Amino acid sequence: MIKKPEFTRADVDIIRREEMYKRFFRVEKIFLRHKLFEGGWGKEIGRELFVRGEAVAVVLYDPRRDLIGMVEQFRVGALDEPNGPWCYEVVAGMLEEGESPEDVARRELLEEANVTPYAMEYICNYLSSPGGSDEKLHLFCGLCDLDSAGGVFGLPEEGEDIRVHILAAEDVFAELLNGAFNNAAALICLQWLQMNRNRLRTQVAAE
Questions:
Q1: Is 158 a catalytic residue?
Q2: Together in a domain, 140 and 47
Q3: What's the half-sphere exposure (Cβ side, CA atoms, 13 Å) at 35?
Q4: How many structural domains are present in the chain?
Q5: Where are the alpha helices (DSSP H) in 18-140?
Q6: Phi, psi (rounded to 5 degrees) for 157
Q7: What pLDDT sits at residue 26?
Q8: Which segments constitute the Nudix hydrolase domain (predicted)?
Q9: For position 171, what pLDDT does the model report?
Q10: Which pLDDT belongs to residue 127?
Q11: Is residue 1 part of a domain?
Q12: Residue 3 lies in a domain
């Protein structure tokens, strides 16, 4: 069994915070000190933090037809990628006050893919880049009927232009580690689906 880390939040002393930037995103500089593995407290250090909050990502899967739904959209952070800045991703969105992760998952599935799942499976959660951001993602698999799915969706007032692709699972898994899916949420969701695909297909066949 893997032990929990020795230290907790109580072993960090926040000295002060400074807001460096606030528009669509927010950046803080946090001045702090923390306990050391060899004993005592470290000196004061400053760390910039990209304040992002919690998000949700959902991979769409139709176990009856063995189909996976992926979304494609422009991403400014991928401008210099070899395949260009349009990325194949899973459906995703940010938590708003009062929402649960599953609430967000279902809302985003309607907004970005026009799909309502008949069941949801929670995969895991993870910190996307804890060295400089507080962003935490909750991952789901949305089980749904993808027979007539596909099209272009998103909220125009938010600048969204999202194309939904319905792909054979075998084709997706064949390209899984070849760079077609170049973001962590998509890779983790698809690897989980690859491991659980037979179970999900067996369950739906037994119904």
A1: yes
A2: no
A3: 11
A4: 2
A5: 101-113
A6: -65, -15
A7: 95
A8: 51-191
A9: 97
A10: 97
A11: no
A12: no
Is 6 annotated as belonging to a binding site?
no
Residues 30 and 81 in one domain: no
Q: What is the pTM of this model?
A: 0.92
Closest CA to 19 of 9, 29, 5: 29
User: Is residue 169 marked as binding?
Assistant: no
Instruction: Return the closest-CA partner of residue 143 out of 100, 198, 200, 89.
Output: 200
pLDDT in tens, 153-184: 988 888 889 999 999 999 999 999 998 899 99
Supply the range of the domain harboring residue 111: 54-206
Which of the following is catalytic: 97, 157, 158, 207?
158
**Is 38 marked as a binding-site residue?**
no
State residue 146's pLDDT score. Answer: 96
**Burial (0-12, 13-18, 19+ Cβ within 10 Å), 111:** middle
Per-residue pLDDT, 28: 97
In the prediction, which pLDDT does 160 show? 87
Question: What is the rounded CA–CA span in Å between residue 56 and residue 105?
Answer: 6
CATH code, domain carrying 73: 3.90.79.10
d(C-alpha 163, C-alpha 178), whole Å: 21
Quick check: 154 and 73 in contact, CB under 8 A? yes
d(CA 188, CA 198): 17
For residue 155, what pLDDT is reported?
85
Q: Is residue 136 part of a domain?
A: yes
Q: Which residues of the chain have pLDDT under 70?
A: none
Q: Is 99 annotated as a binding residue?
A: no
